[in-house]
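Methods: example folding runs. The two proteins below were folded one after another, and each record is reproduced exactly as written to the output file, sequence line first and structure-token line second.
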Amino acid sequence: MLSKLNHKNFVNLLGYCEESEPFSRMMVFEYAPNGTLFEHLHGNCFFSKT
């Protein structure tokens, strides 16, 4: 379903892998040169626990 989605504001899904031992799922998306969604939402603010 995600691989069929095409929109200028979304990165494309390139692949998917599922492993049984240890159980894990991975989704591979195209490279986004302008940064991550987290970076756009939070800017360059990184909070330390000190």
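Second run, written to the same file directly after the first:
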Amino acid sequence: MGFTLNFTSLKNFVFLYLSLRLFTEGVEEFLIQPTAWYYMKYLGESDLFLGLTLAAYSAGALLFAPFVGVLEVKFQAAKMITVFSAFVRFFGNLLYSIPINGYFPFFGRLICGLGAATEGVLFGVVAKGTTNKNRAKAFLYLEGLYSLGTIFGPTLGSVLTFNVDIYGWKINAGNSPGIILIFIWLTLLLFALFLPSDLAENSGINERLVIEEKNDHDPAFSKSIVDYSHNGSSPSAMVFAETSDKVTAVVEEDSEDDIRLSKSVAEPGCRPSSMVFCLYYLICLSLFVYMVISFYVPLLAKYHLGLGLSYVKLIYVNSSLFVSVLFFATSLFLEKISENSFLFVTIFAQVIPISITFYFGLSWNNTMSVNESYLLVCSMLFLSAQFLNTPIASSVLSKITPVKSASFYQSLTYTAVHLGMCLSRLAAGATFGKMAMIYTSAVLAFFWLFGILWLGYEYRNFARLVTNTEV
């Protein structure tokens, strides 16, 4: 047997492919975005059409992510979905790079969004191939690669810019990113063809699940061990194990014809559905807050603080470097504190950029000093921490939902992500003004307060369920 990463039991080639895929996702998003404005102007399209084109990507992912998740759970067709996704991304970027009129890049981004809807399936594969203890590390690793791709994307776009005419196909700075992505996704498509039929085939072979729970009143604790074999279809057996009044594991039997998803591990009085929706809400909220406020930052820097483009870039560079360090540091933090506590802290931190935005709205007509630019830096640093919420919440989600339907629940995670992105792009562009920004900050504060109260209400339930499912 070859080398196996310590937080996954997936085959090395599968894990390498997932790593390249998530890195490419980040590259594509930020390779297209900086040049889309130039491309639309070259094609004679309006700023509104530019916004629709950029939003089409998220709209495609938002609409089809749940469908893809259901498809994978029903047919266990992760490889087929992965291959199809790579082909769709290849075809979508091919359409994007055809400079006939604006509808080609528009439908190109929409089709690419359909391919992006499969990201949840990939995270579902990771959920099946990791233990509860190491799942957060795996998710942070993959999200870290995505963030690294967002840093690498603009750099790649600056270096590889073409200006040629191939039999009437004009390639310039606007559609050069599409050309680059055609070759990248063609390569990933060829790699996907060689993936095993079951991407998570190593994740359930002769596993021994040891579930321990300590009694609050007795220093002794009970221990139940469940053996099961995984033949590529579904676990042959699962077991109900109880310690006093607490359920420590849930087990059902599966048949080849009728696969019944195991129930979430639950304790008396818990409402798993409420907890699941809470996590989806927090993921959507994190993206919404980040996208709205980060849209304001360059505009405030230019029009109210008089900062040049180079200073604005420095703000974003510092933000990107900070989030890269955070991804590494978080894996260390999680060895000392629980995922629930970490999630509560990062969600609570949203109040800082919201408050800073509210301050700039109140000071709209006042003369601002350059020193107040540090408030923008502070705002972006705290916003960067919101990137951690998706992998952490996804990890918690995987521990309170059935493993067999992991792809479905992780697909809904990306539905929440792209819902936040779509709503934020609609809201941010129409609210850059004194009163509009004040009202937006108040609305963000209301959504934040609702989220923090909901998380606080469910906090104990999260802590109990996650503790009971640690392996």
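Comment on the second run: Residues 133 and 335 are 9 Å apart (CA to CA).
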